[in-house]
Amino acid sequence: MSGPEDTGQGGAGEEDGNLPARLGEERLAEPVVRTGMFGVQDSPDTSGYGLLRVYRAPVLDSPRPYGSYFDDVADALGTALEAAGIGFSDAIERVAADRGELTFYVRRERLPEVAAKLRDDPALRFELCGGVSGVHYPDDTGRELRAVYHLLSITHNRRVRLEVTAPDADPHIPSLVGVYPACNWHERETWDFFGIIFDGHPALTRIEMPDDWKGHPQRKDYPLGGIPVEYRGAKIPAPDQRRHYS
Amino acid sequence: MTSSSTPHAAAGGSDADAAEGRVYTVSGEDWDEIVATALESEDFESGERIVINMGPQHPSTHGVLRLILTLEGETVAEVRPSIGYLHTGIEKNMEFRTWTQGVTFCTRADYLMPLFNEIAYCLGVERLLGIEDKVPERAQIIRVLMLEINRISSHLGGIAPMGLELGATTIYTQGARLRERVLDLLELVTGLRMNHAFMRPGGVAQDLPPGALEAIRAFLDSAPKLVRDLHSLIDANPIFIGRNKGVAYLDLATCMALGVTGPILRSTGLPWDLRKSQPYCGYESYEFDVPVNDMCDAYGRYLIRMQEIDQSMRIMRQCVDRLAARGSAGPDSDPVMIRDAKIGWPARLSLGPDGLGPSPEHIAHIMGQSMEALIHHFKLITEGFRVPAGQVYAAVESPRGELGAHVVSDGGTRPYRVHLRDPSFNHLQSVAAMCEGGQVADLIPAIASLDPVMGGVDR
Amino acid sequence: MGIEEKLPSGVLLTSVEKVAGWARARSVWPATFGLACCAIELFQTGGPKHDLARFGMERASNTPRQADLMIVAGRVSQKMAPVLRQIYDQMSDPKWVISMGVCASSGGMFNNYAIVQGVDHVVPVDIYLPGCPPRPEMLLDSILKLHDKIINTKLGKNRERQIAELENARLALPPLHLTSPDGSRL
């Protein structure tokens, strides 16, 4: 049975530069994270499901110009950071402009300074913080835990997103409660669900789960925790134990 | 009145277990003396404080909210809201269902405004799919119509308990009476009174049934009188004003610091409404005003909510006129779901002998006429569509404030992470800022003016 | 409870049972344990269209000491379960429980770490009411069924016999997957 190489998706770079880039080549350069469940290799399985390959999403690093107001925001932020003596690339790992939204990937040590500049600089003035949202990528070693902040500027009617990463081994991110007090409960919730410790938070305790709960439920390695459902003699397993085809 | 500083004798108790304290012998007509003496006594200076628990089972806390109060007499020294009593794990549950099934989960987060949860999530998914401008116009008009109907029912669901908690049961029954009529409309169009799962990524689940436009028009003709009745019952009521005016003061700077949006922000004088500043679903083409005042207190917020009900009815009237102008061309020429066969929910539903299911025409089409349609139907319903990887934040102006959905996809048929940024979660943080230093009795109208829904807070 | 517990079974007890059952059913005071979406339908049931006041039930007793009926309306999370049990314990006999909605009856659509899969893990339930959320008419139907149950509840010695009979009848029922829709064994 043919493997992925035979379908013509591998071997990029063999052809000459005159040919147009193949569709999805950037995506195909990423590693495979999931394969089809049945993994059929050597039998005449015509379903094609055994050949399913899901590639990890490419890491976005948009080139300039970003479009719409994103360039203004990035320039203003760069100027404000330089005025404080921080280089732009010291603070910001990369910038992604995707689907009409601007994301700054901020290095975690610089997060409070970047947030303070975004709030105070007159060209930026992102007054409202929508809170912290945590995401867990267990496959992305060294960058498993993410904290995502959504900021809104009422003055300029703009939105921006900050994303900060932290490894599982050292899940510390500086707290933004001093800059945006609205983040207080959001950071507690992110600690509760992901185990991200926000340094400098006045009272980092569990907020949604009972105080003596063990574990951080919304991490990917925490099970959904359902029970099998019995109905009329049949037993259906909990949602995370069932087969899935994606 | 005489007072002496002797060991306090407990009622019927012996001196052996008496506590230190002042004894006040009251003889009548000396209330001022008692108060003056109490104020200057050491007991008061040492700050006798009691810690009291209010909730989670409490009639007036708008759901399962627990408030830990530190009281000095009648004054609230500290208030700590404690939440999590309704945590349902909605966000984690959504990671194990397809993108379309996720709607049924997120709809139950903030259960007074289920359609807003759905639209925030669906707008996020549509932006990830890149089909925001391909959603059919009829679907957008129906979405706006249903959202405004839900806004009315949500505001009434906030105002009626506001009266009940103050002890005014008539406000509750009158609000519930009007809310019933709104729920009738929701049931007519979506089939359910609550938790509708009506908005789907790509459009809405089904078109309006015949007779719906007439029923909505009938409502729009008769409801303003009921709203005026509510106004005349509540607005100038001296007890309502006495309990709500000047209570729960939250000014603009505090709102900005605490991330407060919605009617509370508009009661500080800032006319910020996402429907006007960052419109979605075609809101830019409707004429409506954004009610705003600068009272910054519970009464101001109540007035804004009542005015928003009027504005919602105005928008509903425009939606109904537009739908009537489009006529009922049928799903082929005027669809309510995106045309893309790989995304749009395929089944046209109808009521058959064994309940609600795909209509016979649809079944004939997929079984007899088009193999491709059968394949699409099968794949969409078992596996669901695939959403390209990325993350998106879609925000809508819900009755409570800015409701945002942070939707993350890894390229699969299931959401990788959905986080609902619920306005009530943010607003409950401001309880301490609003109520500390005030009276215990002011807590109730303060929380009622925030209108938190614990389902959204805890998710 | 009272003197009726000490009466020997006979005509006198039967008459007392009838009167007591009738009286208890006529003004059941709910300790509304309104938690989530079902609480909103409960709130609408108390409104003028579907009127709980016709049963004498609009006076929701917020203190469990004076409450007769606990309507668990909504999903019970792990954090809320001890509170639920405490409120149930604080209610005085006679007390009944309606678990309103599928989340209270069985965990509903939330089969996960956060929700107790049925409040019958925590309190004994008299009437299970499915629905997500159940319409006010369904809630009224369940309340009427509960009234039937209350009216037919015996007292004292008769009650012990009644409990034993009911339990034996339930134990003798065939399992659901071997029962046809009309109740007979497959």
Structure description:
The complex is a heterotrimer of chains A (246), B (459) and C (186). With 246 residues, chain A is an alpha+beta fold. Chain A has helices at 25-28, 70-83, 88-91, 111-120, 183-194, and strands at residues 32-35, 53-55, 92-98, 101-106, 128-136, 145-153, 158-166, 172-174, 197-199, 229-231, 234-236. In chain A, β6 (145-153) and β7 (158-166) form a beta hairpin. Chain B has 19 helices and 12 strands. Chain B is elongated and about 95 Å long. In chain B, the strands form 5 sheets. In chain B, strands 3-4-5 form a 3-stranded antiparallel β-sheet. In chain B, strands 10-11-12 form a 3-stranded antiparallel β-sheet. Chain C has helices at residues 3-6, 11-26, 37-45, 81-90, 102-106, 136-151, 156-171, and strands at residues 33-34, 69-73, 96-100, 127-129. In chain C, strands 1-2-3-4 form a 4-stranded parallel β-sheet. In chain C, α2 runs antiparallel to α6 (136-151). The model of chain C has no long low-confidence stretch (mean pLDDT 86). Chains in contact: A-B, A-C, B-C. Chains A and B meet through β5, β6 and α5 of A and α3, α10, β10, β11 and β12 of B.
Percent of residues in helices of chain B comes to: 40-55%
- Separation of the first and last Cα atoms of chain B: 56 Å
pLDDT averaged over residues of chain B:
86
- Computed structural class of chain A: alpha+beta
Order of helices and strands of chain A: HEEHHEEHEEEEHEEE
**What's the tally of helices of chain B?**
19
Q: Give the uncertain stretches of chain B in residue-range form.
A: 5-18
Largest sheet of chain B: 3 strands, antiparallel
Q: State mean pLDDT of chain A (0 to 100 scale).
A: 81
The beta-strand count of chain A equals: 11
Radius of gyration of chain A: 23 Å
Category by helix and strand content of chain B = alpha+beta
Q: Any idea what the shape of chain B is?
A: elongated
Strand tally of chain B is 12
| Strand percentage of chain A | 15-25%
Reported for the largest beta sheet of chain A, the result is: 5 strands, mixed
Please state how the strands of the largest beta sheet of chain A are arranged side by side: 3-4-7-6-5
Query: Which two chains have the most extensive interface, and how many residues on each?
Result: A-B, 51 and 51 residues
Overall 3D shape of chain A: globular
